[in-house]
Amino acid sequence: MAKEIFDVIQELRTDRKPFAIATVVETVGSVSAKTSSKAVIDQEGRVVAGWVGGGCAESTTCSQAQECMETGETAVIDIDLDDEILGAGMPCGGSMRVYVEPVLPKPVLWIMGHGRVAECLCLMGDLLGLSVVVNDPMVDRENYPNASRLITDDPEYEQLQPATGDFVVIATQHKGDHESLQRALSSQADYIALIASRKSSRLVLDYLREGGVSEQELGRVMAPSGLDLGARTPEEIALCVMSEIVLTRRGGSGMRMRDKLQQRPEHTIVKSVGG
């Protein structure tokens, strides 16, 4: 059973599919599951490995698992198996407590290109909990030790396959800008950035526009990319881009925290008219 659960978890991780692990942490009275019993529950709310009890106990756990996958938060649920109305509907004479932990795939940071900015992006992305993929024939493990995957044989960027929730940064130094951007725009990536000067960015976007890419699609490209932090060095440029990625991912305001805390709601002055 343990091997089956491990194998299923590995398969789900490889396929980048969300799942939840439910563990029975306490039982009281007559219950079919044992303490430490585990089950793996997929995104559709199905038990795909393991067991935490049958019937309504399973359905209650699966329902909570789906909620945990949506919120990204863990939960502890108490299932009363002795109350057909208020509990899970299984008069077994006992109860159980189940800990449910969602396991969500890491968002992927796809870096197209090489150089110092790309190296810093790789390091920062890993520090921020992203799975980093670097695609360029010049990359190596020595300069990109934090990358989850290096791609060195993909001149047409066919392996650039970002999913919803992923981030793409084009840092190809004008050697593959058009091809990689077109590939990225065909995906559901949450963020697509082009690291280039204002002039170069305009030329790239004009080229894609002339090639038939719609204005709506071009609007997805952050070019030039990053927040305005006054960056000059490659390290600072990488920080600007990563800051924009965090802003996109977490939904912040981009304001200074001091200014945000000092903000006060505007007061509307109502004048009375009449005598």
Characterize the structure shown.
- The chain is of the alpha/beta class.
- It folds into 2 domains: 2-103, no CATH class; 108-250, NAD(P)-binding Rossmann-like Domain (Rossmann fold), CATH 3.40.50.
- It has 8 helices and 11 strands.
- It has helices spanning 2-14, 55-71, 116-127, 177-185, 198-210, 215-218, 234-250, 257-262; strands spanning 19-29, 38-42, 47-50, 75-80, 94-103, 108-113, 131-135, 149-151, 167-171, 191-194, 221-222.
- A 6-stranded parallel β-sheet has the order 8-7-6-9-10-11, sandwiched between helices.
- Helix 3 packs parallel to helix 7 (234-250).
- The protein is elongated.
- It starts with a helix and ends in a 13-residue tail after the last helix.
- The model is unreliable at 84-88 and 267-275 (pLDDT under 50).
List keywords for this structure.
5-stranded antiparallel beta sheet; single chain; 6-stranded parallel beta sheet; alpha/beta; 2 domains; Rossmann fold; 275 residues; elongated; 8 helices; disordered C terminus
